[in-house]
Amino acid sequence: MLSSVFRKTMWDRRSGFVWWSIGMLAITAITVAFWPTLQSDSDALIELMQNLPEGMLNLFGASEAVDFLTGPGFVNSRIYASVGSFIAIFFAISMGTAAVAGEEDKRTMDMLLANPIPRDRVILETFAAQAVLTTVLAALVWVTLILFNPVLDVGLSTAGVTAASAGMVLLALSFGSVALMIGSVTGKRSLAVGVSAGAALATFFINGLAPLIDSIAWTQRLTPFYWLLDHNPLVNGFQWQLLVLLAVIAAFVGVSVWGFRRRDVTV
Amino acid sequence: MSSTMWPCRGRVASGLMAPVIRTDNLTKYYGKVLGVEELNLEVEPGQIFGFLGPNGAGKSTTIRVLLDFIRPTSGRAAVFGIQTTADPIAIHRRVGYLPGELAMYDKMTGAELLTYFGALRDVSDLGEAHRVAAMLDLDLSRTIRSYSSGNRQKLGLAQAFLHRPELLILDEPTNGLDPLMQQTFHSLLEETRAAGRTVFLSSHVLPEVERIADKVAIIRGGRLVTVAAVAELKQKAVHRLEIRFGAPVDPNEFERLSGVRSATATSENTVLSLAIEGSVDAAVKAAARHEVVNVVSHEGDLEEAFLAFYSDPSVDLDAKGGGDAQ
Fold first, then answer.
1. Residues 6 or more apart whose Cβ sits within 8 Å of residue A253
2. Among B211, B233, B255, which residue terminates a domain?
3. How high is the mean pLDDT of chain B?
4. Nearest by CB to A2, which of B90, B115, B159?
5. DSSP bridge partners of B245
6. In a domain, B158, yes or no
7. CA angle, corner A67, sides to A64 and A68, nearest 5?
8. Rounded distance between C-alpha atoms, residue B254 and residue B118, angstroms
9. What does the alpha-carbon distance between residue A126 and residue A5 come to, in Å, rounded to a whole number?
10. Is the Cβ–Cβ distance between A203 and A119 less than 8 Å?
């Protein structure tokens, strides 16, 4: 059990993770359970949607690329483009923060590093734990959707659900690795949480609203949300855009290693 | 024994063996705040070395440089001849460490913490750690959250001893230990020294260092004040005598005596307070010529020497560099 930093990091989460999982399962299940009702009431919904301002629709993940009134469009906007992804994002941020800045904040880092383990390993093993548990959260979404899909006639494809769930993992790790990076470079816990969570919210709104203003529309491409949602993996399956997120994550983890190597450990 | 085990035998005017810890002009600033400055220390193997100074003097700074948690601003430090910034992992393998700011994983039990650190050290036999915990009367089955600060300290010691390290670096090891446990801890240190291992411990508690250490370095405001054998410091220690006489005496008669630093009389010259460096023989013999009602003696301890170093910055500022010729 407690045989490596990786396993210990997983062990730390053994009770808390249950609640994250329950939250993710509940959100996914409740969302798809609503689909049949929505579908039968679609006239009222179409009218409602037509009255909403464009920006609002964009934020709901219901731009032209995704039709809110199809099963995949609905699931995408409610799960992958909003609540579900944010659960995964905040979970990854909590792990990224705890890894280095949190350990220093609790003043246990000295004792951990007095063991013959390089600082790099603390970064890489805690990040591996973050990646594994975030993947488990996304896998719960995958399982729920795959189970409900035939029963409720949502019209999802297995390839689409798989790609979008993998994309959710990468989206969450983008921000989780920012938290890890800021914690590793500065050792400041509140900064790590603040910047990464702030970046998640800010880029979410930029991705939704920037396209409405031509002069700043390009800023959308700076957000991880764009690289997940723009090519609509839930409908189109795996696309190369997801690799952009992978590269960003690798870069942030690399900076984390560099940053923690070079600085003093805070007491 | 083969000659390779004694690499320094040929060195002239030096210790027999290479120092376990050595710092060369070690300087550490936190921004503009001084941690330590121009620190030169040598700790020989098989010693219990006391690193003495008030809080904030730079003890933890020095220790954290030795373990490469922080990097020197200038100068350098080596443990087992390995420069701290070059290969800290090789150093960590051979060092047991007790942090001064002791915090541990609250959710674990004591036993779980030992299991975890044993795994990180690749040590499967936790017998030594459990033996130390038992000696210190620590219940390892409870969670660390429920431990008192004394119990946390005991667990911190148990994990420091876990891999039978050649060198123990203990930052304020007796913090929170009750007197009985301090005794146990001291016998643990003596046992460690008897096995030829080295102990480097910091403290702001003088009598403790005096009782256990072979050599002591005194640090103040980030600078080394002195390094000396404890026996040597004790000689400098000032004894205090308070003598009550049956009739008034003249303090000047005592002030002239050898070793007497000060003599003050109170209660109409019937109570004499003496501060004496070294032997009290002359003063006692002089007092015997008068009617002595009572004598109160305060054990001459390192504290007196220590306080002298602190109160007077000019005292012995030439550090002796670990007592060895360079």
1. A123, A124, A127, A177, A180, A181
2. B233
3. 86
4. B115
5. B292
6. yes
7. 125
8. 62
9. 7
10. no
Same domain for B296 and B200, yes or no, is no
Quick check: A2 and B108 CB within 8 A?
yes
- H or E element, residue A82: none
Q: Is the pLDDT of residue B300 over 70?
A: no
ipTM above 0.85, yes or no: yes
Q: Which of B37-41, B109-113, B268-272 has the lowest mean pLDDT?
A: B268-272
Tokens encoding A150: 């035939």
Under 8 Å between Cβ of A91 and A134: yes
**What is the helix (H) or strand (E) element at residue A154, kind and residue range?**
none
- State how beta strands B215-220 and B48-52 pair: parallel
How many domains are there within chain B? Answer: 2
Residues of chain B with pLDDT > 70, as a percent, come to 85
Show the domain range for A235. Answer: 5-262
pLDDT tens across B280-295, in order? 888 889 999 999 999 9
CB contact under 8 A, B89 and A117: yes
Tell me the C-alpha distance between B123 and A26, whole Å.
Answer: 44
Given an 8 Å threshold on Cβ–Cβ distance, is B103 in contact with A111? yes
pTM listed for this prediction = 0.84
Total domain count for chain A? 1
Which residues of chain B are at the A interface, by a Cβ-Cβ cutoff of 8 Å? 30, 60, 64, 67, 69-71, 89-90, 92-93, 95, 97, 99, 101-105, 107-108, 112, 115-117, 119-122, 156, 159
Q: What is the pLDDT of residues B6-50, one digit of tens each?
A: 444 334 444 457 899 999 999 999 999 999 999 999 999 999 999
Q: For residue A19, what pLDDT is reported?
A: 97
Runs of H (alpha helix) within A187-240 = 189-209, 224-229, 233-236
Q: Which of B61, B116, B140 to mutate to test the interface with A (most CBs of A within 10 A)?
A: B116
> Are B157 and B221 within one domain?
yes
Q: Which domain holds residue B277?
A: 237-311
Q: Decide if B64 and A108 are in contact by the 8 Å CB cutoff.
A: no
Tell me which DSSP letter residue A62 carries: -
Tell me whether residue A230 is in a domain: yes
Nearest-neighbour CA in chain B from A255: distance (Å): 19
**Partner B, chain A 107-136, Cβ-Cβ below 8 Å:** 107-118
